[in-house]
């Protein structure tokens, strides 16, 4: 009986080892695919990247699920900004931040 349990345990460990290796290969393959897709997308000209980004964003479900379509959130943010104008950015500051991200 003891030998049988040892054999069974070794066989089970071997099965788990094969399963974990197969799973690891699948994960690495998927990660490689994602990295390759990202690299190909980033190599596209800007106009094609923008079109791809728009298509990808349209493929996602809507995030806003509020009954008032976000009006309460907008009013809350507006009130916060009125109380502390330093929370906002000027048009020039916004353009500078966008310009730095493109570099």
Low-confidence stretches: 1-6
Mind summarizing the main beta sheet?
none
Helix content: over 70%
Percentage beta strand: under 5%
Average pLDDT, rounded to a whole number, is: 78
Overall radius of gyration: 26 Å
What separation lies between the terminal Cα atoms? 69 Å
Number of domains: 2
What is the general shape?
A: elongated
What does this structure look like?
- The chain has 2 domains: 1-60; 65-103, no CATH class.
- Helix content is 78%, strand content 0%.
- The protein has 103 residues and is an all-alpha fold.
Task: Provide keyphrases for this structure.
0% strand; 103 residues; mainly alpha; 2 domains; 78% helix; single chain; elongated; disordered N terminus
Produce a short descriptive summary.
With 103 residues, the protein is mostly helical. The chain has helices at residues 2-42, 46-59, 71-83, 91-102. Helix content is 78%, strand content 0%.
Write the layout of secondary structure elements.
Elements lengths: L1 H41 L3 H14 L11 H13 L7 H12 L1
